[in-house]
Design brief:
Distance between the termini: 50 Å
Largest sheet: 5 strands, parallel
CATH architecture of the largest domain: 3-Layer(aba) Sandwich
Low-confidence stretches: 128-156, 414-458
CATH class of the largest domain: Alpha Beta
Mean pLDDT: 78
Number of domains: 3
Strand content: 5-15%
Radius of gyration: 28 Å
CATH superfamily of the largest domain: P-loop containing nucleotide triphosphate hydrolases
Shape: elongated
Number of helices: 20
């Protein structure tokens, strides 16, 4: 399902930047208008998922508040992200965030944060967003949920940004409306079911059901009846008639996952189903016509299975009209932030919990991990750190043990290279084996990994500067500063201690 984003700005350069950011996000389209007056006209004619409004002056902020003051008007009942020009002050941001009417972002733009907010707001729109519910005023410490709880996650969302996934989706769009059988291959947890649903939702059969059969989880003696159905009394335990999954998928798509788990006898039964689209229920002589597109999934290489004699060659040839391979997550680590942001938003909407801030060293650990369990493991990791993080901030120690072990090995590897010939017992002023002198402060960590230290120092300096700017703008009011920064008061005080700003005035 595509979501229309209404962008309100006269600044062409700003509009181009936002459009470029949104283009990397699937199922989103952008329409640009110059003023709020024009925006209201467009919203009356067309349904928009969210609005992104460029606020360039205090008058513009006043007009924004006045325009969206009547949220009972269903035309205007959409989430609004206000992007505020640098220099307008933190007080203006606070005014716009008051009562949860608007989500705010200040310039210069953090494109990662922009993409995160757009994705989160579009998800909330699908999940039943109502005026007054923003990402900044979510519940803390078990308080009642501020925004509606979604019962289910939207199934037609398929996120990607890497070049390999763009090529895959381009292939899908070419074949989605065809009736040919498709094989989806990929490691466990890469999202084969998700891709199958994406194909179904973009096909001419999207009005029908997608029926999912996990062939590996159904006992061998029951899989035939599960697929083709049976008549009452056809075998012991058949206490009533059962149509089967093939009949249930009529008009839609039949997705057979773990197709490699089928026995040779069952593979033989599938030959006519895939070739002629006919089958017979157990205990019934008459043949039935299958009115469904067949998609199969496997985490194995079926060509190798055929060569090993474990999978019928003729069935493989019937199935492999189109073959789509999902790359593992370790080959598209540039999608980690996009996928994590979406998972966080979905978990928060379903569980009624807050959206946390992820510290940069935690991000780096997530992006350097090899993810053997792929997207499924990523989702489990997100759910874990959302449960264990404190004060709405995800730190490195909140990540799963497997990620921490991997991150520790990486750090030790860097340290090992940097400390070759260096003794921790060296005294200040003493010459080390490599002929260098320890620093006067004894900060040997900087000598262990200078590149990492330099990056962290640069990041910390920028964060400390931003905090000081916000504190000045809000008159050193710590509560207001935490709201502007989008973090809890506890997280703010932690950062103030970290940067020695507790006495900042």
């Amino acid at each position: 399902m595509n979501v229309n984003v209404l962008l309100v700005s006269k600044d062409r350069e700003f509009a181009a930047t936002v459009q470029t950011c949104v283009k990397e996000m699937p199922s989103l389209t952008v329409e640009v208008v110059p003023t709020l007056e024009v925006a209201v006209v467009h919203m009356a004619r067309q349904d928009f998922g969210i609005a992104v409004v460029h606020v360039q002056s205090r008058e513009g902020a006043t007009q924004l508040q006045r325009t969206f003051s009547d949220r009972q008007n269903t035309t205007l009942a959409v989430p609004v992200l206000a992007v505020i020009d640098d220099g307008l002050g933190g007080q203006l941001t606070l005014e716009l965030m008051k009562d949860g009417q608007f989500e705010c972002l200040t310039r210069p733009l953090d494109l990662g944060r922009l993409a995160f907010l757009i994705d989160s707001l579009t998800f909330k729109r699908r999940a039943g967003w109502m005026p007054g519910f923003t990402l900044a005023n979510q519940p803390r410490n078990g308080a009642a949920a501020v925004f509606p709880r979604a019962e289910t996650e939207p199934k037609d969302t398929f996120l990607y940004s890497s070049a390999s996934m763009k090529r895959l989706v381009a292939q899908v769009r070419k074949i989605a409306d065809r009736q040919n059988t498709i094989i989806i291959t990929g490691e466990t947890g890469t999202g084969k079911t998700h891709l199958a649903r994406f194909i179904h939702n973009n096909s001419c059969r999207r009005q029908g059901k997608m029926v999912h059969v996990d062939c590996g989880s159904v006992p061998e003696n029951l899989i035939e009846g599960e697929l083709f159905g049976y008549r009452k009394g056809a075998f012991t335990g058949a206490s009533q008639n059962y149509e089967g999954k093939c009949a249930a998928a009529a008009g839609g798509t039949l997705f057979l996952d773990e197709i490699d788990a089928l026995s040779p006898a069952m593979q033989c039964r599938l030959l006519r189903l895939t070739d002629e689209h006919v089958y017979s229920s157990i205990g019934i002589v008459e043949e039935k016509k299958l009115d469904a597109r067949i998609i199969v999934g496997t985490n194995r290489n079926l060509e190798h299975e055929v060569a090993a004699g474990k999978f019928r060659q003729d069935l493989y040839f019937r199935l492999s009209v189109f073959e789509l391979q999902i790359p593992p997550l370790r080959e598209r680590l540039d999608e980690i932030r996009l996928l994590t942001a979406h998972i966080i938003a979905s978990v928060a909407a379903v569980d009624g919990t807050e959206i946390p801030v992820i510290e940069e060293d935690a991000w780096q650990a997530l992006e350097s991990y090899h993810w053997p369990g792929n997207v499924r493991e990523l989702r489990n990791s997100v759910e874990r750190f959302m449960a264990f993080c404190r004060n709405g901030v995800v730190q490195l120690e909140d990540l799963s043990p497997s990620i921490l072990r991997h991150s520790k090995r990486d750090l030790l590897g860097v340290a090992g290279e940097a400390t070759a010939g260096f003794s921790l017992n060296s005294q200040p002023g003493a010459s080390t084996p490599c002929g260098s002198q320890p620093s006067a402060s004894g900060s040997w960590i900087r000598r262990l990994s200078p590149q990492i230290t330099e990056l962290r120092l640069s990041r910390d300096l920028g964060e400390a500067t931003k905090i000081k700017e916000v504190l000045r703008a809000v008159g050193n009011n710590r509560t207001r500063a935490s709201q502007v920064l989008g973090i809890s008061r506890e997280a703010l005080y932690k950062k103030l201690r970290k940067y020695d700003l507790l006495n900042f005035t």
